[in-house]
Amino acid sequence: MTESTLLIERFDHVIHVTLNRPETRNAMSLFMVNELRNLFASLQDDVTTRAVVIRGSNGHFCAGADVRDLAEGRARAAQAGSDPTQSLVDLNRAFGHLITQANHLPQVLITVLEGAVLGGGFGLACVSDVGITLQSTQFGLPETGLGIIPAQIAPFVVQRIGLTQARRLALLGERFNGDEAVRLGIAHFAASDSNALQKTLNDVLAKVKRCAPNANRITKALMHNVGGKDLNQLLDDAAQSFAKAVLSEEGTEGTLAFVQKRLPHWAQ
Q1: In the chain, where the domains are located
Q2: How many CA atoms, within 13 angstroms, populate the side-chain half-sphere of residue 132?
Q3: Distances from the Cα of 3 to the Cαs of 31, 71, 148, 157, in angstroms?
Q4: Which distant-in-sequence residues (6+ apart) come within 8 Å of 62 by Cβ?
Q5: Most exposed among 97, 122, 186, 203, judged by the fewest C-beta atoms under 10 Å?
Q6: Which pLDDT does position 122 carry in this prediction?
Q7: For the segment 25-39, what is each residue's pLDDT rounded down to a tens digit?
């Protein structure tokens, strides 16, 4: 049996996930992709988990896809005398399914970005709700320099930072640091060192705890529907969700706590 590529810990309402392939700077093998997909599937209906924090081991977030998977796929096809196209399509789409799952996680997804944030790691950063980076972190889309393309990542990068900047980064293979990542909107906070990084993470998690869990889930789903639904229909649906939220246990507790000048129960 292959050893797990993830370290998973739970503290209070938070799942902490560490990508753990330090010998490859946490490059994503197909095995890691499948482990993450299984984890995200298990969290879909988990109302007790309010945030998921993803970081990498040994000072790196993720150096992208494991190129050895591509080479091994070609070699296996050559030995079998078969066309490798479909196996490579399946391999690539597996990551697309993963990043889509991450994008639509109902929990607050937080990425802690250190060292190398390249390729697939870059894509994962682009679907986080909150990105926290070191100023020294190195970001980039190196695919075109390898003769391949950021096939599953590109749409999420465009959504995150816009077409103009995404084209520049992908077509020039640009590398840039954490301060630039914040300027572009890939990350939200840049820290000078690991202590400041951890403090920022703690502050973010404290703010997550202040927000009502179900209200966060519904708000995230609402935002994902922007551009995908007719605007009037979206606003009609949002009004229905608003009324249900006001009348819900959370809404009742939240407004009562505000009037009584105390924290609601979920924030204690």
Answers
A1: 6-209, 212-267
A2: 23
A3: 10, 21, 29, 31
A4: 19, 25, 26, 27, 28, 56, 116, 117, 118, 119, 120, 121, 124
A5: 203
A6: 98
A7: 999 999 999 999 999
* Spatial contact of 99 and 64, defined as CB atoms under 8 Å apart: no
- Which pLDDT value is given to residue 161? 98
Spans of the chain, pLDDT less than 70: 1, 73, 77-78
Q: Name the E strands within 40-199.
A: 51-56, 108-113, 116-118, 130-134, 138-140, 175-176, 189-191
The yes or no reply on domain 212-267 and CATH 1.10.12 is yes
- At residue 88, the pLDDT reads 86
Residue 12 near residue 1 (C-beta atoms within 8 A): no
Model pLDDT, residue 73: 67
Which pLDDT does position 82 carry in this prediction?
73
Q: What is the CATH number of domain 6-209?
A: 3.90.226.10
Q: At what angle do helices 67-80 and 85-103 cross, to 10 degrees?
A: 150
- What whole-number distance in Å separates Cα of residue 111 and Cα of residue 124? 8
* Predicted local confidence at residue 85, as pLDDT: 86
Burial class (CB in 10 A: 0-12, 13-18, 19+), 197: buried
